[in-house]
Amino acid sequence: MLLFSVLAAAIAPGIALLTYIYLKDKYDSEPLHMVIRVFLLGFLVVLPVMIFQRGLTFWLGDHTLLTSFGVSAGVEEFLKWFVVYHIIYNHTEFDEPYDGIVYAAAVSLGFATVENLLYAWAGYSSIGSLVIRSLLPVSGHAMFGIIMGYYLGRAKFSEGRSSKFFLALSLLFPWFWHGLYDIILNTLTQDWIWFIVPLMLLLWFLGMGKLARANSRSPFRVVKPEEEVNL
What's the stated role of this polypeptide (predicted)? Predict the structure, then answer.
């Protein structure tokens, strides 16, 4: 019974956050089987991430800045971005800006869910610590995914240099925020909570704003006459 409770606590946060993001798509929801498939692809990202991170740690050594921005944030965000870009970006189902958010969040939360399961399996996490992980790393991965997906959506429906610019931002911004998150945890062993909580609140504020803006750019959105005047 305890094992079931721990596993449920490890899996539930990722699914709950992905469900929330999926349901916030106001105009043209993605096929559920596609979202589940991409979520499961996030599971597969864990293995290459572990391999690359282990190799980079041996090569670069244990330096806090390099570990936070290079080994941790750099590897994880690049591989998640790589999956979304090469599998989803040119897919026919990617037909509105919000879709980038759904699929990038799905990969990120699939990855975060496996991380939680590994912690639980290794015996490092009680139910209480898994709740904390749902409030911090799992929701952090969700916000990194939203930011990545927002700019992928901007890139997809832009042209020329603007498209390349937003494509670069889709990797740079989640990498920066993830690296900042990690450097706080890796350097502040005592007072980290006073910095990480404001950071998470900021990320949620940015993330919710990007959900709204992506929805507002949907080609399936019907603009009311009174809205046309304001535009």
Answer: Involved in the degradation of specific anti-sigma factors.
